[in-house]
Amino acid sequence: MYNPPDLKELVDRAIGNLSYNQEAGKLIDPVKYILSMGGKRLRPVLTLITCNLFSDKIDEAVMPAVGLEVFHNFTLVHDDIIDQALVRRNMPTIHSKWNVNQAILSGDVMAFVANECILQTPSRCLQKVFKIFNKAAIEVCVGQQLDIDFEKTTIVSKDEYLRMIELKTGALMATSAKIGAVIGGAEDKDAELLYDFGRNLGMAFQMQDDILDAYGDVKVFGKVQGNDIVSNKKTFLLVKALEIASVEQFKQLQEQFTMKEFDPEKKVRKVMELYDQLNIKSITENQANDYINNAFGLLEKIGVSKERKLELAQVANSLVGRNR
Predict the structure, then answer these.
(1) Which residues pair with 88 in a beta bridge?
(2) pLDDT for 162-205, tens place per residue?
(3) Which class for 176: exposed (0-12), middle (13-18), buried (19 or more C-beta within 10 A)?
(4) pLDDT tens for residues 37-92?
(5) With DSSP H G I counted as helix, E B as strand and the rest as coil, what are the percentages for the chain, rounded to 5?
(6) Fewest 10 Å CB contacts: which of 67, 119, 129, 154?
(7) Which of 221, 195, 198 minimizes the C-alpha distance to 208?
């Protein structure tokens, strides 16, 4: 069995060896830039580990795994434009380093680079894998649209928010786990269990992300603190705060998220005060841990030995320990 650090190194090496059309360097330079930023490589590592559950021959899953990582980074490029984010992984975002038009175009080409990688799936399961990937790609876009729509919606219910992150974040994590299983030769039952495992992992990951945006150290997390608050994004923290707030607290939150002109630092400080009054960080952490526990419950049902599941359990556990 392979361990996550070794698989991450394998993914990083494969990403570094990607070949591109060099006719337009300005198109490719931003692509190389964001892919060189690193990150946990959680999705491709997940793909390789789930493949390894059923097969020791993981080389067939490397390029599809890289395709999932390239696609994920493509979504980040466009997300950063939409969110007007200036920092990603402690480095300038593509649109702030180059410009918005360049970021859009370079992001677009990444989607097709991802396709090229996915198409290197073994022929015996290529059609099945590509359908799984394409379905997830569409769901991610739907989730992003809902996220945008929610910014203009005064009240978003908990169920609406959970559905949005299930699509925007959970779908690709679920697909990464399922594609690895399919390439590894898993039975359909186990592949579906791993899909649900990845979905729960993705839900937990997004909630951790929501927490880190508000409470994380920029030096550790790599993003400007409170960006979600400044940009009026609906996060689990806000949705839950509005759900349990007193009449006065609800009014104050509504004021902060409907102001047209404001001092960003003061807005973040005020909202954080209200979150602290409502114990929102702890509530969100508990909800994220519920999803992690669901994932472990699904992992137990997968029809391979406990020993073969250890590395996958390690990946799930790593989410619990994300820096806050």
Answers:
(1) 91
(2) 999 999 999 999 999 999 999 999 999 999 999 999 999 999 99
(3) buried
(4) 988 899 999 999 999 999 999 999 999 999 999 999 999 999 999 988 888 888 99
(5) 75, 0, 25
(6) 154
(7) 221
Bridge partners of 92, per DSSP, are 87
Q: Nearest CA to 271 among 236, 226, 240, 235?
A: 226
Give the whole-angstrom CA distance, residue 69 versus residue 47.
Answer: 10
Domains of the chain: 4-317 (1.10.600.10)
Task: Render 65-115 in DSSP notation, one character per residue.
Answer: HHHHHHHHHHHHHHHHHHHT--EETTEE-HHHHS-HHHHHHHHHHHHHHHH
Q: What is the DSSP string of 20-55?
A: --TT-HHHHHHHHHHHTT----HHHHHHHHHHHHH-
Query: What is the distance of C-alpha 306 from the center of its chain?
Result: 27
What DSSP letter does each residue of 163-218 carry, written as one string? HHHIIIIIHHHHHHHHHHHHHHT--HHHHHHHHHHHHHHHHHHHHHHHHHHHH--H
CA dist 108 and 96 (Å) reads: 17
In angstroms, the CA 202 to CA 208 distance is 10
Whether 206 contacts 169, CB under 8 Å: yes
Kindly report the backbone phi and psi dihedral angles of residue 87, in degrees, each rounded to the nearest multiple of 5, phi listed first.
-130, 135
Angle at 204 between CA 200 and CA 210, to 5 degrees: 145
Q: What angle do CA 139, 141, 146 make, to 5 degrees?
A: 95
Which backbone phi and psi does 88 adopt, to 5 degrees?
-140, 120
Q: Indicate the average pLDDT of the chain.
A: 93
Grouping H, G, I as helix, E, B as strand and the rest as coil, residue 261 is coil
Q: How would you class 66 by CB atoms within 10 Å of its CB: exposed for 0-12, middle for 13-18, buried for 19 or more?
A: buried
Tokens of 65: 């795994």
d(CA 227, CA 206) in angstroms, rounded, equals 15
Give me 109's structure tokens: 């080409």
